[in-house]
Design goal:
145 residues; alpha+beta; OB fold (Dihydrolipoamide Acetyltransferase, E2P); 2 domains; three-stranded antiparallel sheet; globular
Length: 145
């Protein structure tokens, strides 16, 4: 969905963060996408190598491509809200379905306005082609929950 990430702004080590607050952000062109923390705690470590190897994120978000290590202080209460196992798979399947529907509506709206990006409309993985209104709507729907 995001396409090529131009930069990443990791959190500061030692920062105390509460569940739902912005944890880190990625830059796509001149725009920024915030990612919210799923748990509360203290940032213990940041993956400094990731910033130098952003292309690796196009391959996988796992293995050496972690963002930070958080010493959680409320895990017992917050774990019930995390998506793990089957619920994670269902969550991602629903998000993919919602994403397809979201971008299909953007393409339909662009067709009405005769403002297509390229001959086939919106290109998946090219979020930078969104106009400001589409960008704000996309960030609100998929990154501000």
């Amino acid at each position: 969905m995001i396409g090529k990430i131009d930069d990443i702004e990791p959190p500061n080590v030692g920062r105390i963060i509460k569940k739902g607050q912005p944890l880190f952000s990625v830059k796509v062109g001149l725009r920024t996408i915030p990612f919210l923390t799923p748990i509360s705690g203290k940032i213990l470590k940041v993956n400094t190598h990731l910033k130098e190897n952003l292309d690796n994120l196009e391959i996988t978000i796992y293995n050496k491509n972690w963002i930070c290590l958080i010493d959680t202080d409320n895990f017992d209460n917050e774990v019930k809200d995390l998506k793990i196992g089957k619920s994670a798979v269902e969550f991602y399947q629903d998000e993919i379905k919602d994403c397809r529907s979201h971008f299909k509506s953007i393409v339909e709206e662009r067709k009405k306005e005769k403002a297509l990006a390229g001959e086939n409309g919106f290109y998946f993985g090219k979020i930078e082609t969104l106009n400001d209104k589409e960008w704000a709507k996309t960030i609100k729907q998929f990154f501000s929950k």
